[in-house]
UniProtKB/TrEMBL annotation:
Record's protein name: N-acetylglucosamine/diacetylchitobiose ABC transporter substrate-binding protein
NCBIfam families xrefs: chitin_NgcE
UniProt keyword terms in alphabetical order: Signal, Transport
Record family assignment: Belongs to the bacterial solute-binding protein 1 family.
Record lineage: Bacteria, Bacillati, Actinomycetota, Actinomycetes, Kitasatosporales
Locations listed in the record: Cell envelope
Organism: Streptomyces olivaceiscleroticus
InterPro entries: Bact_solute-bd_prot1, Chitin_NgcE, SBP
Source organism, top-level taxon: Bacteria
Family annotation (SUPFAM superfamilies): Periplasmic binding protein-like II
Length: 480
């Protein structure tokens, strides 16, 4: 994600949104990646002296090893933060090893196996390492010292007190330890051009009946209602999952996340799946979408071939060139339309959560340095730099004062304000990556949206996959 968005959130992400070639590693491969144990491989640096300016006791002359996912957010923001790290610790000049890749898992597998992983990793994208495996193998550093350290901007505040709601909890896996820090903050939903809707004398449809009517109107003009990345159909849940919760209430997603028996058989799931399937049946999905990747679908959408696309707020940066060519695009994001007056949650309910997950491997040679770089990244200066560069919010609560935000990010801020307390954070894509992306996304939702599977068939198959995951003793389970 952003990463995605990818997607992220990419990965999903999460982008826990996902970008790059879709090659979700098998569990055995991931287990191999995270099986370093205590074999060693590098020399741990000695801690430095703790002080007000160095609250994490960073060794002020030790090398730092950083690997960044080169997806929708690029890598410059991380390099800029590294420059601030060197400014704070001048003796590290020339000692920061920076690498970027879209193939996180395959690139880092040998290093985890050898017990010599980097000090900080942006674990995102289609080749994201499976968090449940990393956690189960005890491969991640507890980031509590970082969260309890004073913030760069206000020493009277702990870092944890400067973060957006839910960010700390997202990095926890059934315990009090925080093992992942989600740096970006992504607003997911249905993205569109206000200008293209105005050409049809329309505004964003707040009801599903209005959505279908607008799609029918667009079809007569030779424009598709929707498109999506059919090669990576796990983007569809960015709007589908909050749609499910809007219809049936947040407890439906909670049961799904918890792998409860029969959770996918909830009437709200069936209603949401049938609504999306209707887009296919009525010809409101751009032809060829099942064969498109994320960039191709975004290009077609930005060119006005389709009105709507499920995505994350990284899309503004990732599609910037195409949007610029379109002229007055006026990018915006919409929350799921209301299916009926009996929906359990109000219009405006949406999915927003941390994205771009950063980890400090437990066997890192310089874990204090990795955490210190994260502390610097969570300063207002670094946060604003990230937002200006990639048109995305960070997990720092605020950090946009004085910035002139682009249309999409402005819309995302407004969407968050409208949602208020009705902000959802499904965990399936964080806890069970292979289940969410490969089995549910590609194997079921993708097949349904392509018309090769009915909603009922998709739901039955997803429930089967969820049940298999729940019964698999080799997969660590989580609950919320």
């Amino acid at each position: 994600m952003g990463s995605t968005s990818e997607t992220s959130r990419r990965d999903l992400i999460k982008r826990s949104v996902a970008l790059g070639v879709f090659t979700v590693p098998t569990m055995s491969l991931l287990a191999s990646c995270a099986s370093g144990g205590d074999s060693g491989g590098g020399d741990k640096v000695e801690k430095g002296t703790k002080s007000a300016k160095n609250p994490l006791a960073v060794n002020e002359s030790a090398p730092l090893d950083v690997v960044i996912f080169d997806g929708g957010f690029g890598e410059k923001y991380a390099r800029d933060a590294e420059a601030l790290y060197v400014a704070a610790y001048p003796k590290t000049k020339g000692k920061i090893k920076h690498a970027s890749t879209q193939k996180i898992q395959s690139t880092l597998q040998p290093r985890f196996n050898g017990g010599n992983p980097p000090d900080l990793v942006d674990n995102s994208g289609a080749e994201q390492m499976d968090f449940s495996t990393l956690v189960g193998k005890d491969q991640l550093t507890d980031l509590t010292p970082l969260l309890d350290a004073p913030s760069v901007d206000d020493p009277k505040k702990k870092v944890r007190d400067t973060l957006r709601p839910g960010v700390v909890e997202m990095g926890q896996f059934g315990g009090s330890e925080t093992l992942v820090l989600y740096y970006a903050y992504t607003v997911y939903g249905v993205w569109y051009s206000k200008t293209n809707l105005q050409k049809l004398d329309a505004e964003y449809p707040e009801t599903w009946d209005d959505m279908l009517a607008l799609c029918a109107k667009a079809k007569k003009k030779g424009v598709a209602g929707w498109t999506y990345p059919g090669k990576y159909p796990y983007y569809v849940p960015f709007s589908l999952y909050p749609f499910i919760a809007k219809i049936g209430g947040p407890e439906v997603l909670r049961r799904i996340d918890n792998l409860e028996p029969g959770a996918w058989k909830d009437p709200a799931v069936r209603a949401a799946f049938e609504a999306y399937y209707e887009l296919y049946k009525k010809g409101y999905v751009l032809k060829g979408s099942p064969g498109l990747d994320h960039l191709q679908s975004q290009k077609a959408w930005a060119e006005g071939k389709a009105l709507f696309i499920p995505n994350g707020s990284w899309v503004e940066f990732e599609s910037a060139n195409q949007i610029k060519k379109a002229g007055n695009f006026d990018l915006a994001v919409g929350a799921p339309s209301s299916l009926s007056s009996s929906d359990k949650m109000p219009f405006g309910t949406l999915w927003a959560s941390g994205g771009e997950p950063f980890i400090v491997p437990k066997q890192a040679n310089n874990p204090e340095g990795g955490m210190e770089l994260l502390r610097i990244m969570l300063s207002e200066k670094s946060s604003k730099n990230f937002t200006k560069q990639v048109s995305s919010l960070t997990s720092l609560d605020g950090g946009t004062e004085g910035l002139s935000l682009p249309p999409g990010l402005t819309s995302a801020q407004q969407a968050l304000e409208k949602a208020g307390k009705n902000v959802l954070n499904p965990r399936l894509q964080d806890w069970y990556v292979a289940l969410q992306k490969e089995k549910i996304g590609v194997g079921c939702i993708g097949e349904m949206m392509a018309g090769r599977m009915t909603p009922g068939e998709a739901i039955n198959k997803i429930q089967k996959y969820a049940d298999e995951t729940r019964k698999d003793s080799s997969i660590k389970k989580y609950k919320r």
